[in-house]
Design a protein that fits this description.
Number of strands: 2
Shape: flat
Strand order of the largest sheet: 1-2
Mean pLDDT: 87
Largest sheet: 2 strands, antiparallel
Helix content: 25-40%
Structural class: alpha+beta
Number of helices: 1
């Protein structure tokens, strides 16, 4: 089990300068899950 102080700092892309401390293991697991389902390469414009 992770230590309670095993935290990392992440910066909010929507609010530059806003840094939040989060649990390292939870963040890593969520990041891995998101990267597995996101398409590779640059996003494509699907708008009108």
């Amino acid at each position: 089990m992770a230590k309670s102080d095993d935290k990392i700092e992440i910066e909010n892309v929507n609010a530059p300068g806003l840094i939040t401390r989060v649990d390292r293991m939870k963040y890593s697991a969520m990041r891995k899950a998101l990267l597995e389902v996101m398409p590779e390469g640059a996003p494509q414009n699907i708008g009108p």
